[in-house]
Design brief:
two-stranded antiparallel sheet, 7 strands, rod-shaped
């Protein structure tokens, strides 16, 4: 038999008497004899979301590659927390919204700047280097600049 974490939680609910609807089938033995209301289980186990951002969410929101997101976390530029997925019930490493907002207000990746400017990343990097603008840091081979230092060069943002 294959069980997931929810099964353990269901057994705990049955054993602690927290379920309102529990019945026993006399024609079965052991765990097969237990009858529970699936709607009640769903209500008890389905929890609210953690309201944090997964790496895949961040990948779309910044937008940069998954590898860059992993590097940002690994290099300590984005602080993470562990939260339980409301659906799968497994632990996930996620970023709190306030942490992401602070990061987003402070830094912008070269790839975003090149889209705003309409130039290739290589051409823009050369232009920024010649103008004396150094990246604040590089993660996953992606340079990140301080937003306040470079956005005045891009009137469209």
């Amino acid at each position: 038999m294959k069980f997931n974490r929810a099964f353990e939680e269901i057994v705990e609910l049955v054993l602690t008497g927290e379920l309102k609807t529990v019945a026993w089938a006399v024609d079965n033995i052991g765990a097969a004899a237990v009858r529970i209301d699936p709607e009640e289980i769903k209500e008890r186990l389905l929890r609210e979301g953690h309201d944090c951002f997964t790496f895949r969410d961040l990948e779309k929101m910044i937008p940069v590659s998954y590898r860059v997101i992993q590097a940002l976390v690994g290099d300590g530029h984005l602080a993470t927390v562990s939260r339980r997925s409301p659906v799968k019930r497994t632990w996930h490493t996620v970023v709190k919204p306030d942490v992401f907002s602070a990061f987003r207000r402070e830094f912008v990746p070269l790839s975003n700047l090149s889209v705003i400017r309409g130039w290739s990343s290589r051409k823009l990097r050369l232009h920024l280097d010649q103008a004396g603008f150094e990246p604040a840091f590089t993660s996953g081979n992606m340079p990140f600049y301080r937003r306040a230092e470079v956005l005045h060069l891009f009137p469209s943002e």
